[in-house]
Amino acid sequence: MQEAGAWPGGTMTNSIEVSKLVKTYGSLRAVDGLDCDVRTGEVFSFLGPNGAGKTTTVEILEGLRRKTSGEVRVLGFDPWTQLDQVRSRIGVTPQDFHFFPKLTPREALRLYANLFGVKPDVDELLARVELQDKANDYYDTLSGGQHQKMGVALALVNDPELLFLDEPTTGLDPRARRAIWEVIRHLKLEGRTVFLTTHYLEEAQQLSDRIAIINRGRIIATGSPVDIIARFGRPERLRVVGDPALADRIATLGLHVERVDGAVEVELRSKADALAILALVASSGLRWDRFSIQTDTLEDVFISMVGRLEDGSTPGAIPEEAGK
After folding, report:
1. What is residue 306's predicted lDDT score, i.e. its pLDDT?
2. Residue 305 lies in a domain
3. How far apart (Å, rounded) are the C-alpha atoms in residues 103 and 65?
4. Distance of CA 324 to CAs 37, 114, 187, 209, 219, Å?
5. Taking the model in full, what pTM does it have?
6. Which stretches of the chain are DSSP H helices?
7. Which of 230, 262, 282 is the last residue of a domain?
8. What domain count does the chain have?
9. Residue 21, SS3?
């Protein structure tokens, strides 16, 4: 892989830096003073509901759309005015990747190599995305997962430092999705930076070093998945499936208790609470079948945060230091 670039005046520690970015369409502020950075060598997920400003932001970063105001640097350059310096060092896999139906993956890679003026090891690229067995099959005979793998392989032709992967697993079955996950993990191991957009929150939680959540054109939280969940998620809960009367017994411990879907859920203040609850349940004489510890996922937190914003309240953003 080629050497990383440098920011003016020093070594590049961030592959992307965005400050006070604004994009307007008439009276609509699609991006409204957005600030974020993407560190070199990390997998960074950009999350948000439909209409939040994700696509506009990504297109500005890729040099496809002009910003209204603010500062944007991709690998040290303005992607709109210095696209030539950026283009050869990034790879892009667009959402719903499509290609010529009667070209094979091998032919497609050679075509892209000619366009970039490079000479990659085509067989190595095909092996990297597990397409070596389909190298000579027409695109229109490949499965949806194989289409996406081919898109990633094409994005790697020019040996990029930074990859933009836009919804790379949309519509794929679980096995194909996990195969793409492994490709992304290997890209990180190679030292590449991956900017990922996805609607699959489990995917972001599994793959990301850090995430940013955008809503109404603004970043509302930035940090690692663990940071986001810890700050905005609910406390751990002990869930007991059994007699509903258990809720009243457990409430005598002074804990917050709810009946949820035929079970009793208790918020835990500490690990010791779990031991006290189980001891009480065991000695109660009431029926109980099983128990489990419940923790919020990134998806739970995302839905809660965006829902609160739609209701008119605004959660505090995670300080940038929390993601370090």
Report:
1. 85
2. no
3. 30
4. 12, 40, 21, 9, 17
5. 0.84
6. 54-61, 83-87, 105-116, 122-128, 144-155, 174-189, 201-207, 225-232, 246-251, 271-283, 298-310
7. 230
8. 2
9. strand
